[in-house]
Design a protein that fits this description.
10 strands; alpha/beta
């Protein structure tokens, strides 16, 4: 039984998670959740026991000095709460539970059950997992973000894809599968990172994930310096690519392939979506006419519905990680 006496009752809570490691190309996903923690001043209320899930020879603890006193920070996964809006203000009240950590080394089923135990106690009605993969995408174009749902009905309701990926998976895929077993709606947002510039950080991919999260939840996310960091990152990669004729030619071929594939999308729809994001960030709420996020609230009650507790020790088979970790559909 997880006791969360210090956490206030949440309103329309959504859990947003990201994990460093195999599912986090360019550290794009974990950096996006870290951005949310900083901008909304997240308050950490729980951390998983590092002894249960991590191999310290793989993810080593860090020693640091605190006023001359040596301290140790253990690799783990931490949960924080951010509270958006207010009852009286123009921004509709919404709470987020942020989960940020490292892909565990062992006991993945227990790890996911513990995360979902927190989700149950907090009344979380939806889990959004952020991930990033390496793909054949040019750094000069918008970062592709694919949204996949945990089941067919949720995919239809939110107009998303249902993942058809088969192959090796990471903790992102396993957590989405655990959500399905627990009856908790789950969506994974995958950003494609250029494989020829995979080293972190990649602020452009983090920014794309935050844009996709804005569209999914209908909230305006303060972006801070992230857009400028993304522009500086692209300029830097442009300069590096220009120094190597083979790389420049390869990038050009990726651009041509991407432009051909995206030609049907080059319409007013993309412009309209970006304008809606602008209005959300300016006004703090969705533009007039946007439907509220009805899947997060029990209609008419004004209160969140409790989630079902994940099955204790239930068997969870392998789950797809979305549209390919290390490949694109």
């Amino acid at each position: 039984m997880i006791e969360l006496d210090g956490v206030p009752e949440l309103v329309d809570p959504v859990m947003v998670a990201a994990f460093e490691g195999w599912n986090d190309a360019g550290d794009a996903a974990s950096a996006a959740v870290a951005h949310l923690e900083r901008e909304w001043k997240g308050e950490v209320f729980a951390a998983l026991d590092a002894e249960d899930y991590y191999d310290f020879q793989v993810n080593r603890p860090q020693v640091w000095l605190d006023g001359g006193v040596r301290r140790v920070t253990w690799p783990t996964t931490r949960l924080s709460v951010v509270r958006i809006g207010s009852e009286e203000g123009p921004v509709r009240r919404r709470d987020l539970v942020l989960v940020r950590g490292i892909e565990p080394s062992m006991r993945w089923r227990s790890f996911c059950n513990e995360i979902l135990g927190f989700a149950h106690e907090l009344g979380v009605e939806m889990v959004v997992v952020l991930g990033a993969l390496l793909g054949d995408t040019p750094h000069t174009r918008p970062v592709p973000v694919t949204s996949v749902a945990s089941d067919e009905r949720l995919a239809q309701r939110l107009d998303l894809e249902e993942s058809r990926y088969e192959g090796p998976t990471g903790i992102v895929g396993i957590l989405q599968e655990a959500c399905g077993h627990a009856g908790v709606p789950a969506v994974t947002l995958w950003a494609a990172v250029p494989h020829y510039v995979a080293q972190p950080p990649n602020p452009k991919a983090s920014l794309a994930l935050l844009h996709a999260l804005e569209d999914l939840l209908g909230v305006g996310i303060p972006l801070g310096d992230l857009p400028e960091d993304a522009r500086a990152w692209q300029i830097g990669v442009d300069q590096l690519a220009a120094e190597d004729s083979e790389v420049a030619e390869y990038v050009k071929s990726l651009e041509e392939a991407r432009d051909t594939a995206d030609l049907p999308e080059a319409s007013g729809e993309a412009i309209a979506k970006e304008f809606e994001r602008y209005l959300r960030r300016r006004d703090g709420h969705p533009p007039a006419g946007d439907p509220p996020s009805s899947y997060l609230r029990d209609p008419g009650s004004g209160r969140t519905r409790p989630s079902r507790r994940p099955p204790e020790g239930g068997d969870q088979g392998p789950q797809d990680p979305g549209p390919g970790e290390g490949q694109e559909e």
